[in-house]
Amino acid sequence: MMGRHRWTSFRARLPIVVSAIACVGSLVLAGAAGSATTDSLYQIDTGYGDFFYNYDFTTDSGAGWNTVDWGMSVIFYNNAEIEKVKGEAPSYWAGASVASPMWAYMWNNGTWGPGYDQDSGKKTDSPSCLGSTRHFRIYAPPTTDRFYNQSYGYYVVASTHYDHHELCDDWFDDSEGTEHDLANEVASQPGNAVWHDYANLSNYQWYDEGNHHWRQNGYATYVWVS
Amino acid sequence: VSRSGVRGPAVGRSVACAALLLLVAGVGPARAAVVGGHEGTWTIDELAGHRAPRQLALTGGGPAVRVPYVLPRGARQGPRLWYLLRLNATVRLGPKDGEYVLSAGNGQYTAAQILFTVRHGRVEADELGLVGGHSVATTRRRTLAVRFENYSQIRAIAPGAGELVFRLERRGGSPGTTATILGSSGIATTPIAPDELRLRVAPRAVVVNPGREVRIRFDLDRRGGRPDRPVRVVLSGGGTRRPGESSRVLAYAGVGSGRTGVFVLRAPARVGAYLLGIGVPDRYNQPSTAIRVDVVAVTGRRPNMRFVGGMSAALAAVGAGLYWRRRRSPAAGG
Question: Which of A10, A81, A83 sits opposite B155 (nearest CB)?
């Protein structure tokens, strides 16, 4: 009976369990240049032994509350994979040569982890002095480039933001705008679909921290990849 | 005339009978087979009632191929009966570099996603599922055999009509790449739950001083009817092995009636919180557990000299005060 109730709830809404176990200072705390901070760092438990942190990090050796970059904001699921998703967002064409890498901390049910995945992501344009580019980074355990479980199928997670005047007076913002722009573009491919702001990843932040202008509502958009 | 008059209705009756026979024999419009409800295997050859070709052809970037079926009343994914999707195929990759995704699912719910990457003449095939775990095969051959099965998604299993959907996607590469879905592909059911290996670890949280020994014990057991195969229990996150520490990987020929082991580590010199993992990679459900290790500085062994000094001074002052009162008090003198 217990299992039945659980699956019923899966149908109603894909399971997102924010683990209260590991918060903020549970990882090694080490500062890094250019890092921002948060008081909302949590493990997102997607079931079956999979988890990822609800932020990506500026370091691959000391993930913690003071080394975060951006909140995770999009989950691509069902038949997703890192390169496949990148290929389904052609507006985001500029890659690692112009985008700096960040790291996600995750675990894939024993296949990988706990450990870091690195990605530079994709941008809508090259950096410039006066221009702006939307930018996403997409993560999954690096040995597999996707998770699999029975609730999400094959899935990956992404963080999003908007870069401005990167070569001059730079600042960064609009996670929400890039989240929706990216999700809409991937969802426009045949067979794909989107649920905007579908699940609470508990990473709401909406204030300025230096040139890091937090603009994320805490909810992730889900994109069904066929 | 009479003959023709007789022949006319006779021909009509023959056609009607033939049509009826064909319909009864199921040669008419295909009706999906009912599958599941009990333990068994239903191949796409059987699902199609032997009416469809024994093999289904896919072309890279081409349309999906669908095989209908019907699940019985009450069908659901677990906990007593679990549905698996089986994908047996032959993939012929073209000469150009590129990436291909061979996928299969119950309707829109994907349960098989096999990645083929062709780079500089080498082919890498990458599988990920809850039965075989994760595996990567590298070869120079261009014709590859796929034998894959995986537990279907929970929402994919529901009573009523469904279909198996097979597709070969292409990113770059050669247009001539094809896959042949073999007739042995299909649906299987099993009472074996996906979580077949069980890993218990103790302790899950450790507080230790720098340089001290940390011992983490694990118990691994299995259930179900899947074959017992070699397993590796892997400790991750512990960094490079140091003197006095155990191996980071403990390998066993099989789980048997259960395995118990101990990982021995030395806490690093640097104070902080560390996350370790113990897992059984690439096997069945690949169980894993995280262990938190808090390395704290040594405290409380040396006396606090300020405190001792302060207390001594206070006691001396109180003693002197009492002594002075006794000397000045007449009663004390009497």
Answer: A10
